[in-house]
Write a structure and sequence with these properties.
Helix content is 28%, strand content 26%. The chain is α/β, with parallel strands linked by helices. It has 2 domains: 9-134 and 327-339, 3-Layer(aba) Sandwich (Rossmann fold); 137-303. The longest helix has 17 residues, at 309-325.
């Protein structure tokens, strides 16, 4: 591991969508980070201030560009890469140019992207750069799970559970691949869901890495719940009797035994058939000596009566963005290659 730079880390924000509104705000607030560039693929965003594009009240003096070459030639220390999906060719180019990358673009280890993991690892090593991916879940939730085992003498099984009413996010594009509103039992639906959330397999590997486990394989088990009434959700109406609840389990197997699990339960309504109750948060369960349970609740920093759907969406974007922003300095100092929470000091916020 190299030493952390004494000067502020020079950062380029890559795209200016939903997650970028949280990353740019955080970068500008941290004295150990300096925003030096911004990429915007849309022609109407080119030439505009990055803070303006991210809906911040004051300009920051960094102008968005679509000139990839110019941004890489400026030799930033790190790119904060936040599109919904990863352009493997582009990230490979960044790493090969010696630019570290932190990303929320559905990448943690690359196990869920056949062929891409090897390419990105090779590019990073060749460029002497590091690639780190996270988000709330998968990502930060697995770090919490690993930390929860730190008081155990023996650990037999670790489970990370996300249980959320997602009706407020029904219209989000990252819901498109899950097949909400398809008939129960629709052929191929489970396979489509697994493909849409394949990055959770990466989360299993991250947790296994933190626990120094060698996995034989990762299994995926999917269940569905049906709406018991018509759901008039903005941007995604769901008819009675069709899929309105999804239960996904990615299970890591070692020596023929289930050792780690990522369990996701997403519901579009409180009443489903069969019932799929949600806890509106995250829960870590450690089967060990002693038994450990850790519950993470996330509440808005405002009176609940003032909370809007947009505010809820903003919280979701914040908890997606902050794990990678707070990891930037450690990633810049890390060994070349794909790195996970197993390779980094625990990232944290910087207090004013």
């Amino acid at each position: 591991m190299t030493h952390l730079p004494e000067r502020p880390v020079r950062v380029v924000q890559w795209t200016t969508g939903n997650v970028a509104r949280a990353t740019v705000r955080a970068i500008l607030r941290r004295p150990d980070l300096e925003l030096v560039g911004c990429y915007a693929w849309s022609p109407d965003k080119v030439g505009r201030d990055a803070a303006e594009l991210c809906r911040l009240p004051e300009p920051c003096g960094v102008t968005a560009t679509d000139d990839v070459e110019a941004l890489l030639e400026s030799r930033p220390d790190c790119v904060v890469y936040t599109p919904l999906h990863m352009d493997v060719d582009l990230v490979e180019r960044m790493l090969g140019a010696g630019v570290n990358v932190v990303t929320t673009a559905e990448f943690l280890t690359g196990h869920s992207l056949p062929g891409a993991r090897e390419r990105l690892e090779a590019a990073a090593r060749a460029g002497g750069a590091s690639l780190f991916g996270s988000g709330m879940n998968p990502g930060y939730a697995q770090l919490l799970a690993a930390v929860a085992t730190g008081i155990c003498q023996e650990v037999r099984h670790v489970r990370s559970v996300e249980s959320v009413d997602v009706s407020g996010f029904a219209a989000d594009s990252n819901m498109d691949g899950l097949g909400w509103g398809r008939p129960i039992g629709d052929e191929g639906h489970a396979d489509d869901v697994r493909s849409a959330v394949a990055v959770f397999e990466d989360g299993v590997h991250v947790l296994a890495d933190c626990l120094a486990l060698e996995l034989d394989r990762v299994d995926c088990r999917i269940g569905f719940g049906a709406a018991v009434r018509d759901l008039d959700l903005p941007g995604r109406p769901i008819a009675r009797g069709t899929v309105a609840g999804i239960d996904v389990r990615f299970v890591g197997i070692a020596d023929g035994r289930e050792v780690v699990e990522l369990h996701q339960r997403w519901a579009m309504d409180r009443e489903l058939d069969p019932p799929m109750p949600v806890d509106h948060g995250y829960r870590i369960e450690v089967d060990g000596s002693p038994q450990v349970t850790l519950t993470l609740g996330i509440l808005p920093d405002q009176p609940l009566e003032t909370l809007t759907i947009e505010d809820m969406h903003g919280i979701g974007m914040t908890i997606t963005a902050m794990p990678v922003v707070h990891a930037i300095r450690h990633v810049v100092a890390a060994r070349p290659g794909i790195v996970t929470y197993a390779d980094l000091p625990v990232p944290s916020a910087v207090l004013p």
